[in-house]
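Write out this protein's structure.
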Amino acid sequence: MQSDQEAYSGEAERAGRPLGRRQILAGLALLAITGCAGPSRKPTAATSETSPHWDYEAEGPEHWAELDSRYLTCGTGHAQSPVDLSSHTQLHPDDHITIEYGIVPAFGILHDGHTLLVRPAAADSSRILLGGRPFQLTQFHFHMPSEHTVDGVNSTMELHLVHRDDSGSLAVLGILMQETAGASGFDPLLATVPQRQGESVLTGPIDLRTLLPADLGQFRYEGSLTTPPCSEGVSWTVLRNPVPVSREVADRYHALFPHSNRPTQPLNGRTVIIAGG
């Protein structure tokens, strides 16, 4: 069955023009997506209307598989995310994704109870290419501290940009965020954030390129969603170099979601490569 988020996304794409403020807020109110569960048919993403409550505390990651049969992969999967990324790994300088981002006129930011979920307010051309195969940006969101670690060390936060291709396959671009005393590219995006679950605000325009590091060296591996139902078959790219996030933005997010990350999972024989920028 098509999710509310899929319906809202499709409506904007069919219209081919920006939505009004009232339409955007109404659409955002329908979103029931959580974490990395993008508007996809493959892997399957559960919605809050049909699935039990989960969180990062009492009903946290170690209990997700116990909450519902649809979450069993969270406990039994063999290709789960996030993982620890070793700086001493295989080098494949010619194997990289192409990032085609630009200025997005407007975003809706939703407080979904687990994170701040950010979506273009209308159809947008931002995408990544994996082996020439296009994946369109559908949404992005944050975790604190970072979900992926590098040589066992977390960053302050992590940004996940979720993309989908025409077949419904997902590709996630992860960006590590390190707190700094100065300003950062996230300041205009998160200057005003919704304070309670279900609330949303509008912001923009934002140039997504300002959220990327100058050096686009990448860790690449195959994994899963990092929230229930933890579906596998997700192509992961995590940029090696962190980007700054201002102390003000980190504190603003921490006040809402002080802990919103899943611990790293076993590789179970999977290969992580370092790709070129």
